[in-house]
Amino acid sequence: MDYLQMQSLIKKMLPQKAPLIETKRFLFVLPHRAVILFLIILLLTTVSGIQQLSPSEDSDVNVLVDNNPPIVIIITPESIAYSVSAPVPVDYAVLDISTNSVWYSLNDGENTTTFEPFSLNLPEGIYTLRIYANDSFNRIGFSEVSFTVEDFSLFCGDNICDATEDCSSCSIDCGVCPVSSSGSGGGGSVLPSILQKKEIKVIPSEITIDVTKNVPEQAEITIINNKNRDIFLTLKTSPELEQITTFEQESITLPANGEEKITVSFLANKQELILGKLLLKENSVTLAEIPVRINMKSQSFLFDTMLLIPEEFKSISSGTTIPAQVSLSQIGKTLRIDLTVDYEVKDIEGKFYKKETEVFSIAGKKEFVKEISTEELPAGKYVLSMKISYSGYSSVSSEKFEVTGKSLSASLPLIIGTFLTVFILIITAFYVYKKLRKKPELPRLALR
Question: CA 38, 39, 43: angle at the middle one, nearest 5?
């Protein structure tokens, strides 16, 4: 075969091979483009799905079906110190459709059956109270709380300079004794005494009370004077409580290291949550403030209502969703009634932050979990209220909680998911780009 024949043969072969090369390239490119498109759709779907699972203003109500053990919520005692001179109150709630029995143990001791709130007379020490409940299928749920019992009697080192102490016998409480210093002026100076703490103590430290519209309700407070002198106290209220609060005595004289009980009465015709403070003043100086939270209810209201925040959610980071436990139980004859439920979040000063409303009908009993988002709440103390309304009647329940700061845990799944998806996209795109940069080679014929 001469040179001209060989050249003619190559020209005949090229048109046949070129389409095969282009076809192969098309078949190579098409799958990678489809992969890129698929990954983009996956990214959008992932982000959208995570956002839908995130807490939002439009939270749905989840009805609890009785396929789980009972939920036990310990209302009191709290994780604080109680005085050895008074019984420790125990109150609890069990959320379940078919509760069978309730019992408790103290410091893993003997089990004791209970049917209602009770109290414990305990010596000084550290205690863990665990309350159990089971249902008709013998499924058991429990909750526990730890607290201490202490002797609050006066002693040297309690930051209170009582009548039996002075600067020489207890300088920790009463301060350093005066010391004279000589100088050119021949005068002297006195070292300042240590500032005493809790000069006025009030028990309880706050008041939460349920008040029926136009029906007076009373609460009792004990005021303890830890000073080593008599004090004259005037009892006042914040503006929110001025028109609805009366004191058994509007002024009292407390002897040194003495105490006195005062009865406070509340009478209101409102149908909402009322927040305010009781003020104990000596002259114009406020020595103590007692926060007051009043849950108002209409007369002849047809439901027992309960709103509870589990103990582990009473102090949370911002962004945490609170699973508030709600229980509604109709009193008397069972009727189907349409209810309007308003959930509000305010700080302890009464500043409004958010509100949600839902409407549903009920006949008999209903228990569910209402999820409350704290995404936009700054650090501080808050009150969650629930107002149940129907046909001009209403009832308010409330619970306190505290937001301690911003948490990354709420947004962590979204951050990790988005990062991984973007990383995979970048690696895949780089791989496809490198493949497309490679040019297909034409078949070579050996020349002889």
Answer: 120
What is the number of helices (H) and of strands (E) in the chain?
A: 3, 26
If you search the block for the tokens 């003020």, which residue do you land on?
279
Mean pLDDT, the chain, integer: 79
Cβ neighbors of 142 (< 8 A, separation 6 or more) are 72, 130, 131, 132, 133
The pLDDT tens digits of the residues spanning 87-140 come to: 999 999 998 878 889 999 999 889 999 988 999 999 988 999 999 999 888 889
Q: Which residue has the tokens 């945490």?
A: 320
Write down the domain spans for the chain: 3-54+414-437, 73-150, 206-406
Phi-psi map region of 354: left, alpha, beta (phi>0 left; psi -120 to 50 alpha): beta
Q: H helices of 343-403, where? A: none
Give buried/exposed letters for 58-82 (b at 16+ CB in 10 A, else e).
ebeeeebeeeebbbbbbbbbeeeeb
Fold of 206-406: Immunoglobulin-like (2.60.40)
Predicted pLDDT of residue 200: 81
DSSP assigned state of 58: S
pTM of whole model > 0.70? Answer: no
Question: What is the DSSP code string of 296-313?
Answer: EE-TT-SEEEEEE--GGG
Residues 73-150, CATH architecture: Sandwich (2.60)
Q: Name 27's bridge partners.
A: none
Tokens matching residue 164: 């039996």
